[in-house]
From TrEMBL, chain A:
<protein>
    <submittedName>
        <fullName>Chromatin-remodeling complex subunit ies6</fullName>
    </submittedName>
</protein>
<dbReference type="GO" id="GO:0006338">
    <property type="term" value="P:chromatin remodeling"/>
</dbReference>
<dbReference type="InterPro" id="IPR013272">
    <property type="entry name" value="Vps72/YL1_C"/>
</dbReference>
<keyword id="KW-0539">Nucleus</keyword>
<keyword id="KW-0805">Transcription regulation</keyword>
<feature type="domain" description="Vps72/YL1 C-terminal">
    <location>
        <begin position="50"/>
        <end position="79"/>
    </location>
</feature>
<dbReference type="Pfam" id="PF08265">
    <property type="entry name" value="YL1_C"/>
</dbReference>
<dbReference type="GO" id="GO:0031011">
    <property type="term" value="C:Ino80 complex"/>
</dbReference>
<dbReference type="InterPro" id="IPR029525">
    <property type="entry name" value="INO80C/Ies6"/>
</dbReference>
Automatic annotation (TrEMBL), chain B:
<dbReference type="InterPro" id="IPR004000">
    <property type="entry name" value="Actin"/>
</dbReference>
<keyword id="KW-0227">DNA damage</keyword>
<keyword id="KW-0175">Coiled coil</keyword>
<keyword id="KW-0804">Transcription</keyword>
<dbReference type="GO" id="GO:0006974">
    <property type="term" value="P:DNA damage response"/>
</dbReference>
<feature type="region of interest" description="Disordered">
    <location>
        <begin position="462"/>
        <end position="541"/>
    </location>
</feature>
<feature type="coiled-coil region">
    <location>
        <begin position="283"/>
        <end position="326"/>
    </location>
</feature>
<keyword id="KW-0539">Nucleus</keyword>
<dbReference type="Pfam" id="PF00022">
    <property type="entry name" value="Actin"/>
</dbReference>
């Protein structure tokens, strides 16, 4: 009852990525204006500490074959017995998995 | 068994939601331009009147539109948590948000419809000024669409946009005059916003793209990887529940991490999550019932025995009758004449006299044996059958006698062999008895030595079985030493084809070898074949059983202690503690015999449906401080705070008033101490640091907005974007105020953008 009957709804809506990309390209933005894309936190400058992909404890070692980080020799034994796709899943936790395009 | 104090039984899904009740007081509430405050955020949408203390409506910003022909012709629209109760709705669920920005305005329209309807609006248009929250630095497109929706579709008189965390700050501080650093943690992202000079300064704020959604997803993935064979599917709602209840922020991540799995801490910190599990079928009978069942079985066995005895009796009687008949025939032989006698014989089915005699003697034997058994007389030892002809040399006998002699020789050989076997058996028995007696004596006199001996024997048996098992396993592995030895054997045999392994002289010129003539030749196959030495295995197992029984009789603690040692070894491994916490290890081959009563069976099944949360409790919230944990290439919260403070010209006064709010990380316990600790590390010495949390991190944004627009009337009036503004300045227009984003008019790009 409170809606305007002439209002057209049901248009195609863009998702955030498209909206942001479009907006960034459409106008001349002043350099220091806080636009949505500009306030993203920059990448870290501190050295990253490495953590075991399996247990979450600190990881001093990396498996050379799969680049999985592990905490101790015992965890390494577990890594060796993992089924084929599992290491990639562990790496996917931190976006380090290999994606084939 | 360790008492489980940390068991949490996780419910299957959210409790059934209470449907919201619509209100009917729109007219009264709406008088005097009472603003309608809508706190729009990806997790939860809250709406209500500005003069009230609490939002009237609180629901999830999700919408489902679907057609259900059975219920109604047109499409049904549902909003909020009632969606989860209807499976059809669940499949067509849509959120108005993408990230923390509104992009799906169809859903937004639905939500606004719902809000206005539930608040009881029945008029032609909305007459109230709207106060709405938006994301920090919303893209202009989003804002323009929102304004369009509000002004065109709903005809509102004015809109005010603001940032929710800023209003939450206002609620908790009372004013925008104090400088402060707001950490607004939402479901999708976390913002660090400085407030000074009476205003939110979004040009210096920063956003980290980690929110409570990231935490829940991370926990879900971690649990799925930790328990790949878990029988149930863990839903997102359950992950959310776990995150809300059990995660906490470690004050010193490195230190806590290294000590988390240590024995002392594990008992307190490990949480066991019990999922609902199907009860196993149990033997529900009580002890008496079990006894009755065994009694019944015993009686049945007895009955069967009696029946068998009766049958045997009947058979014997039959035979006795036969015997009588046959003897009668024999006796009648003398009386009757030849032919009728022959007829009688034919009737009885007997051919001639000799058969008759045989039949009679057989029947007699059977009857007499049965009689003896009844009387309990042992059958007499058969007399040694005479072998008269054996010793007489061949030449003196006739042909017939020679045949007889050969028969008798065979019989004698058989008889002799049987006698020898019997004697051997008796000797063996005597020997075994002797050993057992000695053993018992030894046990009674030198108990410790005997016990030590027994343990040794048991160990040896076990190690032999182990060896055999490893040998078998190695044979299957092509690269092991045992396998190579086997291959070499085969190759040797193939090369030496024709050579007789027993060393006999080789037949010259003969092509085929006489492999197989001797029995020993076939032993080669024993070495080559991979087959199990099954019989030896069984023997060893029987031995082991015997030892175990003796040990359990005389030294029951020994087996228990072995078990305990084995369990201890398993439980000390890091991976075991990681996946099973403090649970007792289940041994595959326990030394002590285990009786599984009903309780134990249920406990075992329950254990299969259990998860343990230990390291995840601190690992999951840590991602806001180390986004690298989830692969996000952004600075952590601390670094961002540092960056923001520097950008504002090193205003350390901001650090004196750090304010944490929102529905994401703000609710994790321990975050305040952690922040304080960390900020102490980066701030110049001596700066006062204070970290506090909003009184109600979820609702204070709404309350702040309501309070602000009621108390700060001038500021409010100045912030309203009226319909006029909308038409004049375009749909992206924003009037700035203390809690809003920045706005500047941006001309359209004329030249092509720089690549």
């Amino acid at each position: 009852p409170f809606k305007n009957p002439e209002y057209k709804s049901g248009r195609r809506w863009k998702n955030l990525k498209q909206v942001v990309a479009q907006e960034q390209a459409a106008s001349d933005w002043p350099v220091d204006f806080p636009a949505y894309w500009a306030i993203d936190a920059p990448p870290s400058l501190l050295p990253q500490k490495k953590y075991c992909d399996i247990t979450g404890l600190s990881a001093k070692y990396t498996d050379p074959k799969t680049n999985v980080r592990y905490h101790s020799a015992e965890v390494y034994q577990v890594i060796r017995t993992l089924p084929p796709g599992a290491e990639q899943q562990y790496l996917a936790l931190r976006n380090a998995n290999v994606t084939l395009k | 068994m360790t008492t489980k104090t940390n068991v949490y039984e996780i419910p299957d899904g959210p409790p059934d939601p209470q449907p919201a009740l619509p209100s009917f007081d729109y007219a009264e509430m709406g008088q005097g331009c009472n603003p309608l405050v809508i706190d729009n955020s990806p997790g939860c949408c809250r709406a209500g009147w500005a003069t009230e203390q609490d939002p009237r409506l609180e629901f999830e910003s999700v919408v489902a539109k679907y057609r259900n022909r059975k219920v109604s012709a047109g499409p049904i629209q549902l909003v909020g948590s009632s969606i989860y109760s209807d499976p059809m709705a669940k499949s067509s669920i849509r959120s108005a948000f993408d990230g923390d920005v509104v992009t799906n305005f169809d859903a937004m329209e639905c939500i606004l419809d719902y809000i206005f309807t539930m608040l009881g609006c029945v008029e032609d248009k909305i007459d109230q000024p709207i106060v709405m929250t938006e994301a920090v630095c919303t893209p202009y497109t989003s804002r323009s669409n929102m304004s369009e929706l509000l002004f065109e579709c709903y005809n509102v008189p004015s809109v005010t946009y603001g940032i929710d965390s800023a209003w939450s700050y206002y609620k908790n501080t009372g004013t925008f005059n104090t400088d402060g650093l707001v950490i607004g943690s939402g479901t999708m992202a976390t913002h660090v916003i400085p407030i000074y000079d009476m205003r939110v300064h979004t040009e210096h704020c920063k956003r980290i793209n980690i929110g409570s959604v990231s935490m829940e997803e991370y926990l879900l993935k971690l649990l799925q990887l930790k328990y790949p064979t878990f029988p149930m599917k863990i839903t997102e709602w359950q992950s959310q529940n776990l995150v809300q209840n059990f995660t906490h922020m470690a004050e010193d991540y490195e230190k806590e991490l290294s000590s988390y799995l240590a024995t002392e801490n594990l008992a307190q910190k490990d949480i066991t999550i019990q999922f609902p599990f199907p009860m196993p079928s149990l033997d529900e009978r009580t002890k008496e019932e079990i006894q009755q069942a065994t009694e019944r079985r015993r009686e049945q066995a007895k009955k069967m025995q009696e029946m068998a005895a009766k049958k045997r009796q009947e058979k014997v009687e039959e035979r006795a009758k036969e015997l009588e008949e046959l003897t009668a025939i024999r006796d009648s032989k003398d009386e009757l004449d030849g032919r009728s006698y022959a007829m009688r014989l034919a009737e009885a089915g007997i051919e001639d006299d000799r058969d008759l005699e045989e039949a009679i003697s057989n029947a007699q034997q059977i009857v007499s044996r049965a009689q003896n058994k009844e009387l309990g007389i042992e059958p007499e030892e058969k007399e040694m059958p005479t072998f008269l002809l054996v010793n007489i040399p061949d030449e003196e006998l006739t042909e017939e006698q020679k045949q007889e002699k050969r028969k008798q020789v065979l019989l004698k050989a058989g008889y002799d062999a049987r006698m020898r076997a019997r004697v051997e058996k008796e000797k063996e028995k005597v020997r075994q008895d002797e050993i057992a007696r000695q053993d018992d004596e030894r046990r009674l006199n030198h108990f410790d030595e005997w016990l030590a001996d027994l343990k040794e024997k048991r160990d040896k048996t076990i190690s032999r079985m182990e060896e055999r098992r490893t040998h078998r396993r190695e044979l299957n592995d092509r690269r092991s030493h045992a396998s190579q030895v086997r291959m070499r054997n085969i190759a040797d045999l193939a090369a030496n084809e024709g050579a007789n392994p027993t060393g006999k002289r080789r037949r010259r010129g003969e092509q085929d070898d006489d492999f197989g003539a001797e029995d020993d030749d076939w032993n080669i196959y024993r070495d080559i074949s991979k087959e199990d030495e099954a019989e030896e295995d069984e023997e060893d197992e029987a031995e082991l059983e015997r030892y175990n029984k003796q040990l359990s009789l005389h030294a029951p603690d020994y087996l228990e202690s072995l078990d305990r040692a084995a369990r201890g070894k398993i439980e000390n491994a890091t991976m075991y503690r990681f996946t099973e916490g403090c649970e007792q290890a289940i041994l595959e081959k326990p030394a002590a015999p285990q009786k599984l009563d009903n309780e134990a069976i249920v406990a075992r099944v329950a254990r299969e449906y259990q998860l343990h949360l230990n390291v995840e409790r601190i690992r999951v919230p840590e991602i806001i401080f180390r986004p690298g944990l989830v692969g996000l290439d952004q600075a952590g919260l601390l670094e961002t705070i540092d960056g923001v403070v520097r950008q504002t010209g090193n205003r350390v006064s901001l650090l004196n008033n750090v304010f944490v709010t929102g529905c994401g990380f703000a609710q994790v316990s321990g975050i305040l101490e952690r922040l304080k600790c960390d900020i102490l590390g980066i701030a110049p010495t001596g700066t006062p640091i204070a970290v506090r949390r909003a009184a109600d991190p979820l609702r204070d944004a709404w309350r702040g907005a309501a309070q602000w627009c009621v108390h700060e009337t001038d500021a409010f009036r100045a912030s309203r974007i009226t319909r006029q503004d909308y038409l004049e300045h375009g749909s992206e227009y924003l009037r700035e105020h203390s809690a809003s984003n920045r706005y500047c008019q941006v001309p359209a790009r004329t030249s092509p953008p720089p690549t």
